[in-house]
Amino acid sequence: MNRRRQIYEGKAKVLFEGPEQGTLVQYFKDDATAFNNKKKGTITGKGVLNNHITEFVMLRLAEIGIPTHFIRRLNMREQLVREVDIVPIEVIIRNIAAGSICKRLGIEEGAPLPRPLIEYCYKEDALDDPIVAEEHILTFGWAAPHELEEIVAHSFRINDYLSGLFMGIGIRLVDFKLEFGRFFEEGQPPRIVLADEFSPDNCRLWDAETNEKLDKDRFRRSLGGETEAYQEVARRLGVLPESGPGDPKGSEIVQ
């Protein structure tokens, strides 16, 4: 087993030095957190499921011209990605009222929004990732005007495509968070690409008929059945590992 240098560890993933310059190995953990790390726990097999779901989504988005950092899945818990400079902004797209917006604005959960709503949060755990406006992003230089334009255009296109994709398997895409980064190629200006992951960890997915929650809200609200919910999403997408949500015996983890 090759041991590689750890670059960064977050709440749900670990980044290791990649096999080639400009690449990283992204390892998906089973750790679960909520409320900005105030609630902690474990969802058995989550890392395996999120790895497969993210692979599926990233490949589909690439097919419609969305640039991403994803290169390929390496094994059950890891994928090879391009190294990028993360823009310190979380982009939130909301189709249906749920979560913090209901508390902030007094909107009933489940109310459809007249149109997709975009919000931004400044990525800073010490400040609880505060909501910011476009003016904050531009004033403090977190993204250049043309970069923000690209981020907004990509975000709405992703929403349009994935809303249809999930509805096709009987799931409502309620809302989701995205992260973007700058990818540098020699002799080329930096490109904005989709980074991080797309999984039930960073989106809300409701069964289209029953409104059953199939995402991390099951952990946030102590509803139980977290593994089964993530597994159901993977099953409907056709990417559920044959061995189930856990690690197969003898699986290799590149570190």
Verbal overview:
The structure is a single chain. This protein starts with 5 loop residues before the first strand and ends in an 18-residue tail after the last helix. Strands 8, 9, 10, 11, 12 and 13 form a six-stranded antiparallel sheet that branches. It has helices spanning 46-63, 100-105, 134-139, 145-167, 217-220, 226-237, and strands at residues 6-9, 13-17, 23-28, 31-34, 39-42, 70-73, 78-82, 85-96, 112-122, 131-132, 171-183, 191-195, 203-207. It has six helices and 13 strands. The longest helix is centred in the middle third of the chain and has 23 residues, at 145-167. It has two domains: 6-83 and 224-237, Phosphorylase Kinase, domain 1 (2-Layer Sandwich), CATH 3.30.200.20; 85-207, D-amino Acid Aminotransferase, Chain A, domain 1 (2-Layer Sandwich), CATH 3.30.470.20. The chain is globular. A hairpin with an 8-residue loop joins β9 and β10 (131-132). It is of the alpha+beta class.
